[in-house]
Structures are given as structure tokens and as C-alpha cells.
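quick one, two chains, predict together pls
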Amino acid sequence: MAERPVDELTFEAALAELEQIVMRMESSELSLDELLSVYERGAQLARHCGRLLDEAELRVEQLDAGA
Amino acid sequence: MHSMLDVTLHLTVSQLNQHIKDLLDADELLRGLWLEGEVSNFRRSTAGHLYFTLKDAESAIKCAMWRSAAMRLQRLPADGDRVLAYGSVSVYTVQGQYQFYAEQLRPLGAGLLYMRFEELKARLAAEGLFAAERKRRPPAFPRAIGVVTSPSAAAFQDILRVLRARWPMTRVVLAPTLVQGEDAPMQIVGAITALNRHAAALEIDVIIVARGGGSLEELWAFNDEGVARAIAGSEVPVISGVGHEIDFTLADFAADVRAPTPSAAAAAAVPDQVEIRAQLAGLRDALASSVQAGLQAARQRLAREEDALRRLSPAQRLQRDRQRLDDLFYRAGLAARSRLALRRASLDSYAGRLAALDPQAVLQRGYAVVRRRDTHELVSRRTQAPAGAPLEIRVSDGSFAARAEEQGAGDSV
């Protein structure tokens, strides 16, 4: 499963991946190695989502007349 | 017709009024008709019944509307209102008055508009424009929201306020338009079309078509056939938020999602960050507790392995073997010592027996070994020593010669 850098993910994609990770971790089929590396990714995703939420500002633009 | 000459055929007033009432009640048209006129002398009785006059340029007729019908009116008529009323004509015999009894009342303009609305709605519905299967769910996290409304109206500010509060992580692309008047439908259609054209480039995932509350005439642009078709045909899902809760325009029927107001439309377009934050916190917690549980399980497994390892380790084995060795040595020693003791005891006993069997000891005790001096045979019987036989007697410290004397003497031992 190719993983994109967390920074590049949209909020929606990051949240979805985070949900997947939690499901995998709770299913307890991971080795200790996998558990720790997957946790690391999950923590990064959660941080990324939090940052996106906190830094969000509504942007308003207008279509040009005759666009 | 009675002749004026026959005064005996006279009627009472009641009879006359009843006769007139019967006449009118029998008429087909007067039993149900739409009447157009201007309201005047309007009053509402304490019981809730409405009394007014409807008139045109030349004529007037008294009207009454009972409370049961009046209750259904959205707004009470006022003097000067031009109305369309549906009802019947009958006679109030008590006063000899014929009146129009109204069951429905509509503002004249609105009345006609309403009928056009119903007709258009039926036609478009028959085409399947409003079918439930056509409706699409807007995406949960829209990257950009196209908004079709008037930028100067409160509706737009309401939308912005709701978006900022719930989900500022999005963009608004405003396609400004008139929202009432003759030119409005054309502009609304143009706005929807333009937003669809730019949807890919601007990442517009959902469109909101909005207008604040108003009368049927004011909302009329959103009942335009072109507008309804543009909304139904929009590639981008459309959420409508037109008027108030009770207003249903064709735009609402054509949209993928109908919201009662512009604010509700904005709320329907985006998630609520309060909920999402809570969900995120929950996931964070689950992440932490999962990894804790995993580490704990690993720790326990490690401890169990260490235990097993310890039991199997060379140091352990060595210790155990050393102990066994010591034990064996000890036991061996015990065994050896006891064997030795046994042997010694045997030895001693043999030695003793041996000593007891030592001929010298026998001789010491006084016994003698007797031999014939001539043949050296050992003499153990009397016959071997007849009288005169030469003998050699060995005692403890040597031997001496002797000659046997006569037999029979010394039989006692």
C-alpha cells in the first residue's frame, strides 16, 4: 500500500486513513513492529487533521460576470 | 305570477324570501364559482367569521366567510385587496339578502400564479424531473461550494456565517444573481450553468441556490421552468434553500437536497467541526490505547519468554548439574564408606576365623601333632600306633621322640 506524505493529504483522506489504522490496530493482527510503525503514521495523520482544522479560514471568491 | 287583482293570493315575507332562496339554491352556477373582486368593508367578528363586500367598478355583493374556512387563510384580506374567491351564492332569509359565501380566498395575482405553479409542477413531475432516483448525495467534505444568490441580501451573509462556524475548511464561489423580478430566472440559470462549467477547475463539489423569505410573487423566479430544469440538469449536486420552512418552490423539488432556509442549506452542505473534532479526539484516544495494549501484550510475551529462557539456560543447567554432581558424590561417598566398612567387617571376621584356624594356635592350646617316626604318616587313630611303634610328637615349640605303650590306656579325651 503506497503511502503519500501525510502533509499532502486532504482532511477527508487523512481522516479516512486514520480510521483504517485504528481498525487495524484494534483487530490485533499486527506484529509489534507493524503496530509501532502504524501508530506513528496514525499519530501524524491525527496531528495533520488537527492542524487543518485549527488553521482553516473560509475563503470567498466570486465568479466573474460572463464567466 | 299572481294577478294584481287577486289580493287573497298574498305571501308572507318569509315565504317570499324562502321562494327566492330556493330559486337561487337550485341554480348550478351559483352552487360553486370563482369570483373576482376588490375587498371593502372588511371586518372580523368575535366568533372568527369574516364579513366583507366584494365589488368591481359597478357592482358589489355582500360576502361572508365562516371561521372554519377563514382559519386556513395564510393572511387575512384587507380593504383594497383584489382577490379571487371560491364559493356559492345563497339567501340570508332573515334579512332578505343574497350573499356570496366564500370557502377559499386568494390574492388575485397570487391566485393565478398559484394555479400556474400547480400546472407546471405537475408537468415537470410527469417528466420525472423530481424523481427521487435522480437525487444525488453531495460529498461530505466539499472542496468548494458554489452559491447562487444575491450578494447584497441577508441570505448570503447567513450562509457565510454558518459556513464559518461549522466548516471554514472550504471555499465559497459566489455566482451573483438577481433573486426576484423578470430578469432573475435567466440570471439564475446562467449562474448555475457557469458554476457547472467551472466546477472541475475550481473544485466545486456542491451548489447552493438560495433566497430569503418572501411572498409567492417574490419567490416566483424559483418557480420558473428554466430554473427548475437547470437545477435538475446540474452535474454538480444542488442544495436549495429558498424562502421559509413552509415555502416549496419548483427549485426545491428539482434540487438534490431541499433545505428550509439559506442557513439550513449551508449547514447541509458541510460537516460540523464540533462533531468532527470529537470524532478526531476519539480516534486519537483509540490510537493511544491500542498501542498501549499492544506494548503491554508484547511486554508480557517477553517476560514469559525470558522465564522460559532462564529455565533452559546453560547457567541453570550448570547449576543444576553441579548440584546433581554434589549429590551423587555425596551419595557415592556414603556408599563407598559403607562398602568399605562392610569389607572391613568381612575381613575382620575372616581374619578372626583364619586366626582361629591357625595350627600354631591349636598347638598353643595343648594339642599335639603325632606322626610315625618311621613312615611320617600322621597318626589320627589308635591302630596306627601299636605298642612299641616309634612316634614323633610335635608340640607348640618343637617335637620329641616317643614309643607307644600298651593300648587301652587313656581313652578319655
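Residues 314-357 of chain B form the longest helix (44 residues).
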